[in-house]
Amino acid sequence: MNQHWVSDKPFDPHxxxxxxxxxxxxxxxxxxxxxxxxxxxxxxxxxxxxFLLFTYGVALFAExxxxxxxxxxxxxxxxxxxxxxxxxHQGEFIGPYVHGWSYKLNMDKxxxxxxxxxxxxxxxxxxxxxxxxxxxxxxxxxxHLFCVDYPGSIYLLGTDRLGHDMLSRITYGARxxxxxxxxxxxxxxxxxxxxxxxxxxYGGFIDSSVQRVTEIIRSFPELPLWMxxxxxxxxxxxxxxxxxxxxxxxxxxDWTGLARTVRGKILALREEDYTTAxxxxxxxxxxxxxxxxxxxxxxxxxxxxxxxIPAMILGETALSFLGLGLRPPITSWGVLLNEAQNINNVAxxxxxxxxVVPVILVILAFNFMGDGLRDxxxxxxx
Length: 382
Hints:
The protein has 382 residues and is α+β, with helices and mostly antiparallel strands.
């Protein structure tokens, strides 16, 4: 029989049990600290977050990271294949360099056949001067991360039918494709929180109305509905208005899933004691929602956002690929893929399909990071 020992010393409510520094740090941590500690244990999610931060940084300073300007054309090297970079010359390491680039016409296949001119060496320079640009439409500059001296060229991912450098185009396209996901999810969050919060808090007729609207919207196939709404955008709109129009369309059709998630969470939180206490103290519904309920589910909203952004990026890419989304002169990954629709050109010039690679990598990174955030925000997940 086990014996239980009880201290006979007087109880002092001001004396607390001694905790180790690690235990004290854990017990005094905020909700965000706990989420961050759990998230750091998800290695793939951490790598994905680092990749996305790098990608957004490159998109933010696309002019600097691109070796050429967005609309810079090299008509003498159209449909150039990716140009190899060398480091060793005649058995001696001299750093990165490229050879001269020349071509001859193949009259049998009607294509240009490029080859290296090994007699010419052009060292790759970093933080060098090249094509002029205007950063964010405000700052004039001509400094690029890397380039080569004229008349050399460096096409790491080849060129297109107009002689545009593919790497520069993909870098500039990242700015539009990634931005449309952030703006779209911002609008979607506003709609989802508003309608989902009202439906969950008030219930009754408002709840039924919001649920019927979400069911009607979700009953339509997404892609055909995107295409129909995009086709309604006037052809005489400027590229900027087309950008905002596509963003609005994606947001208007994406808020339903978030609204249902918010509704379910609010239905549970409105029965909590602190919500009842706030109501009895005379707090207005708007204050109860914004100050007491939404902070409790904010971690779940961040996880939902990280999983919704990829859908918007794919939506823009699909619409632009089909010719119903963004249009030139705006450059996005979808617009670049639209220019590679001709399967005959892709068979001869396969590097035209390279814009699909960053799309796949970014979508995977968002999904991995979203999984990590969802697990970290779940209090029942170890």
